[in-house]
């Protein structure tokens, strides 16, 4: 059993492409002794783009390659030639991958739901060639703008399975047998702990109206503290809407099923208290091998948990007894939950990586009564922010508020409908 094969959390380094430098050159034509500047602009650096590949179901490929670097833009050339843009770097991940800043643990993006493609790092803007700097007083500028620096960051990729139902329980209670009976999944089944190293997904089809169920590998006490592979396994429960607790009602390994459920619930609560708010049912498995003449363990489970609103279903995963009743009850529970699938909200803006609070910017009034915001910090921010995207526009608004720009504009007497010009690249009318 190779534990290293289980890969649902990996740390990788990503870096966008640097912008190509602007070029300094002058026309050299016959009979034109003093040709003007003709240095071209540098090319833009490549972006780092994550894309969902529905054919992938593990992050195992990232165990072999830890560094991902997009192509840099080429330098501008003579005769106003624009440098070639760097190629974007496409990184394919399974659906359900959450990308986090490794240093802070904050979410950068969640590759699930409608989010099938995300530009995580933008390439640097190409520098302007000296052809852009000719003026009436300086007709032969020997200056060109350098390309903007690349962005780089260590990120952690975490795969959180997208399933409607999470199947939890101690090892060897019969979860794999149950899953293979009720779905199209064919998990490997063996009689030792942690035989299931990665979650098995299967589709339950009930009269054409089904749901996705995930067999979460066996949990043990201490899982929420990272014991064994606890964190890796608990991670997959976070998106599920309903939990099925499977217990060995016959206690074939000598454990008490009530204690098992309480232990697992304690681990769920320790990892994420919201998990206990999910609807739960109990699958009391192995009822076909209960031979005791004493109190029926299923009756004990019902007496303990049904007053708490957790229904108990006696089943046999081997013979199929009671399984259909359990599945229909779970489907009814899912039908009563109309919330959207869990998608983890953005907490970290990669644009902040290149932001330097020490760089200045100014706000002044133009001859046309507009408000002009300019300076190296503004140029830098606009260079790596795509204002055409919702994400980029949200970051732009955040930047304007957090840096006191909106407050400063108000102090200068801005009114609704006034024109604001930002960094020579953007112009808009102000409205609150």
UniProtKB/TrEMBL annotation:
Membrane-crossing residue ranges in chain numbering: none
Gene Ontology cellular-component terms listed: cytoplasm
Magnesium listed as a keyword: yes
Cofactor: Mg(2+)
InterPro entries in the cross-refs: G_OBG, GTP-bd, GTP-bd_Obg/CgtA, GTP-bd_prot_GTP1/OBG_C_sf, GTP1-OBG_CS, GTP1_OBG_dom, GTP1_OBG_dom_sf, OBG_GTPase
Residue ranges occupied by any Obg domain in the UniProt entry: 4-162
Keyword ATP-binding part of the UniProt annotation: no
Domain OBG-type G residue range list: 163-335
GO MF annotation list: GTP binding; GTPase activity; magnesium ion binding
Limits of the OCT domain: 353-432
Swiss-Prot/TrEMBL keywords: Cytoplasm, GTP-binding, Hydrolase, Magnesium, Metal-binding, Nucleotide-binding
Chief localization: cytoplasm
Compartments, record wording: Cytoplasm
Binding site for GTP: 169-176, 194-198, 215-218, 285-288, 316-318
One Pfam family this sequence matches: MMR_HSR1
Binding residues for Mg(2+): 176, 196
EC number(s) recorded for this UniProt protein: 3.6.5.-
Subunit comment: Monomer.
NCBIfam families given in the database record: Obg_CgtA, Obg_CgtA_exten, PRK12296.1, PRK12297.1, PRK12299.1
Role summary: An essential GTPase which binds GTP, GDP and possibly (p)ppGpp with moderate affinity, with high nucleotide exchange rates and a fairly low GTP hydrolysis rate. Plays a role in control of the cell cycle, stress response, ribosome biogenesis and in those bacteria that undergo differentiation, in morphogenesis control.
Protein family: Belongs to the TRAFAC class OBG-HflX-like GTPase superfamily. OBG GTPase family.
Record protein name field: GTPase Obg
Species this protein is from: [Bacteroides] pectinophilus ATCC 43243
